[in-house]
Design brief:
Blueprint lengths: L1 E8 L5 E8 L2 H10 L3 E7 L11 H16 L4 H11 L3 H15 L4 H6 L9 H11 L2 H59 L5 H11 L1 H22 L3 H12 L4 H22 L4 H12 L2 H15 L4 H4 L8 H13 L2 H60 L1
Antiparallel strand pairs: 1-2, 1-3
Helix pairs in contact: 2-3, 2-7, 3-4, 6-7, 6-11, 7-8, 7-11, 7-16, 8-16, 11-12, 11-16, 12-13, 15-16
C-alpha cells in the first residue's frame, strides 16, 4: 500500500487536502471519487516520520469537550470543526480539522480515526461510531474520560508518594557517600583501637562498605542498568509484556488497583461493543484490546475461541487468572436474561469503585512506608558508628 497526497473539492465546493492509502494512483483516484470529491491533484506522498500519539492531558481535554458538544446536541462534524478552532496546539488543530473535513466528505467516523490510530487510544473510532449509532455518544465519551482520569490519578498518587522520599533518599545517598569516602574511613583505626579490634558486626559492615563505596556504586549502577535493558528487551514481545504484567499484578495494593482498572475498562468497553451489535467473541477481543493488558488479550482470545465452538463461558474461563469467575458469571447471566449491557455497566461501576478504594489505600500506605524505609537506613548508619562507643562506655561502666 502506498500513500497519496490529494487536493480536492467537496460537493459543497470546500477545498480539502489530505492523504489516502491505496495500491495505486488509479485506485486512490477511484476511492476519492467514491467519497464524492472532485480531485484537483493527486501525487504520491513522501514518507514522513511516524507521528506520535497526542498527550494524555490534551486528549482528555479534547474528549471532555467533545462529550460536552454532543450532549448539547451539536452534530459531530460541526462539533469537531468548532473544537478544532478552540484547541490550543497547532498540531491538534490540524488533526481535528482534517478529521472534520473527512467526515463532511462522507468518510465514516471509524475510518477517519482508524487512519490516525497511532495518535488516538485503541478503539476510539469504534467508540464514536457505536455512540452515534446507539445515541449514547456522550455517555460513552464520559465513561472513557473517567477511565483516563482514574489512570492519571493512580500515576499521580504513586508519583507523589515516591517523589518526597526519593528526594530525601537522594540527598541521604549523596551525604552518606561523602561520609563513606572522607569521614568514616578516618574513624576505622580509632574505633578499632577503642574496642581492641573487636568491632560490632554492623560497624564492620559499614566500614567495609566505606572502603568499597566506589565499586559498590559501579556494581549497583550496572545492576539497575541491566534490569532496565532486560525489561526493555522483554517488552518487545507479547509474552514478555505478560511476564512484566504478572510481576506488576503481584505488587501489594498497586497490583489490585491495576487489576480493577483494566477489568473496569474491559467491562464498559464490552458494553459499548454489545450496544453496537458486536457478537460476544468479537466483543471480548475488541474490549480486551482496548485495555492494553496482554494477559486480558490472551485470556479473552481463549474465551472467544471456546465460545465460537459453542462452549459455556464459565467452563471456558476455568483457566483464566485475571478475569474472575464473577465477571464470567455476570456475562452468562446477562446473556440468558437479555440484560448483558446493563450487567456489564454494573460490573464496570463495581470495579471502578474497587479501583478508587485501592487508590486511597495506596496513598495512605505508600508514602509512610517509603519514609520509614529511608529513616531506617539512615538510623542504621548512625547506629553503626556509635555502637563501638556504646560498647566502650558499657564496658567502662561495668568495670567501674
Amino acid at each position: 500500500m502506498a500513500t497519496f497526497k490529494y487536493n480536492a473539492l467537496t460537493s459543497a465546493g470546500r477545498l480539502m487536502k489530505g492523504t489516502i492509502e491505496a495500491g495505486s494512483r488509479d485506485e486512490a483516484d477511484e476511492l476519492l471519487k467514491q467519497m464524492q470529491l472532485v480531485v484537483n491533484s493527486l501525487d504520491k506522498a513522501t514518507l514522513q516520520k511516524p507521528k506520535t500519539a497526542i498527550g494524555r492531558n490534551e486528549f482528555m481535554l479534547f474528549n471532555q469537550q467533545l462529550a460536552s458538544i454532543t450532549k448539547a446536541g451539536i452534530p459531530l462534524e460541526k462539533g469537531l470543526r468548532e473544537l478544532a478552532n478552540d484547541v490550543g496546539s497547532k498540531s491538534m488543530h490540524r488533526l481535528v480539522d482534517a478529521i472534520a473535513d473527512e467526515l463532511e466528505a462522507g468518510v465514516s467516523i471509524e475510518d477517519a480515526f482508524e487512519k490516525r490510530q497511532k495518535r488516538f487510544p485503541p478503539l476510539y473510532g469504534r467508540i464514536l461510531k457505536a455512540g452515534v449509532e446507539t445515541g449514547r455518544l456522550n455517555e460513552m465519551l464520559t465513561s472513557l474520560n473517567r477511565h483516563l482520569e482514574m489512570a492519571t490519578q493512580t500515576r499521580r498518587i504513586i508519583f507523589e508518594a515516591i517523589s518526597y522520599p526519593a528526594v530525601i533518599l537522594t540527598l541521604a545517598t549523596v551525604i552518606l557517600t561523602g561520609l563513606f569516602l572522607f569521614v568514616i574511613p578516618q574513624f576505622g583505626p580509632i574505633l578499632s583501637e577503642m574496642t581492641g579490634s573487636q568491632l560490632p558486626a554492623l560497624t564492620r559492615l559499614f566500614l567495609n562498605l566505606a572502603e568499597n563505596v566506589v565499586p559498590f556504586w559501579i556494581i549497583a549502577g550496572s545492576f539497575f542498568a541491566a534490569i532496565i535493558v532486560l525489561f526493555t528487551m522483554i517488552s518487545r514481545s507479547a509474552a514478555g509484556r505478560r511476564f512484566k504484567e504478572s510481576l506488576f499484578l503481584n505488587v501489594p495494593v498497586v497490583g489490585r488497583v491495576y487489576r480493577s482498572s483494566v477489568l473496569c475498562r474491559m467491562a464498559e468497553a464490552m458494553a459499548i461493543m454489545v450496544a453496537s451489535g458486536s457478537d460476544m467473541p468479537a466483543s471480548l477481543r475488541l474490549s480486551s484490546g482496548a485495555t492494553g493488558s496482554e494477559t486480558l488479550i490472551l485470556e479473552s482470545e481463549i474465551l472467544a475461541g471456546h465460545l465460537e465452538r459453542g462452549d459455556n463461558i464459565l467452563e471456558a474461563g476455568q483457566s483464566c487468572k485475571l478475569i474472575p469467575r464473577l465477571f464470567l458469571y455476570s456475562v452468562q447471566l446477562g446473556t440468558q436474561r437479555n440484560e448483558l449491557q446493563d450487567n456489564l455497566y454494573s460490573l464496570g461501576q463495581m470495579y471502578a469503585e474497587q479501583a478508587r478504594c485501592g487508590q486511597s489505600r495506596l496513598q495512605a500506605v505508600l508514602l509512610p512506608a517509603m519514609i520509614i524505609g529511608v529513616g531506617c537506613f539512615i538510623a542504621m548508619t548512625i547506629l553503626a558508628m556509635f555502637l563501638p562507643m556504646i560498647s566502650v562506655i558499657t564496658s567502662l561502666s561495668a568495670s567501674g
